[in-house]
Design a protein that fits this description.
It is a single chain. This protein has 145 residues and is an alpha/beta fold. It is 52% helix and 22% strand. The protein contains 5 helices and 4 strands; from the N terminus they run E-H-E-H-E-E-H-H-H. A 4-stranded mixed beta sheet has the order 1-2-4-3, sandwiched between helices. The longest helix has 22 residues. The chain is globular. The chain starts with a strand and ends with a helix.
């Protein structure tokens, strides 16, 4: 399973950790070993443009997901998770936790979106939040051993 991380913005981010976490989420969701996922770290301006163009929302957001779910020979191309660390940093400050924790949550959240999870209704939202917590807890448990 391959997770590619491209950092196109200025904040210092632990790209290796984000890659390991995304891979962990895919493994926890029982995605085939030959799958590929991309995580892009972009500026506030870039994510604002993407959000406006693809979601019709005229503001910078913290995460967007662009599913592909295409089989290319033996590789399942899952899609792209696009994160904006500067928006995530603002959110982390408001929530009173570290940027790393916020980015962890966003990587899992974005990956789950690519795999079909959603949070449109209360039941779907609850299911997605629960699964995000489970994946984060299992990753942190394995990372600390």
């Amino acid at each position: 399973m391959d997770v590619f991380v491209a950092n196109e913005q200025g904040l210092d981010i632990d790209e290796v950790r984000l890659s390991r976490l995304a891979r962990h989420a895919l493994t926890e969701e029982k995605i085939a070993e030959g799958a590929e996922l991309s995580v892009l770290l972009v500026t506030k301006e870039h994510i604002h443009q993407l959000n406006s163009r693809f979601a019709g929302d005229d503001y910078a957001t913290d995460v967007l997901s662009f599913p592909m779910m295409e089989d290319d020979d033996d590789t399942l191309l899952i899609g792209d998770v696009v994160l904006c660390p500067s928006v995530a940093e603002e959110n982390a400050r408001k929530l009173g936790h570290p940027l790393g924790d916020e980015l962890d949550t966003l990587v899992v959240h974005g990956t789950l979106h690519l795999l079909g999870y959603d949070h449109q209704g209360p039941e779907d939202s609850s299911k997605m939040e629960k699964r995000t917590r489970e994946i984060l807890e299992s990753f942190r448990a394995t990372a600390s051993t």
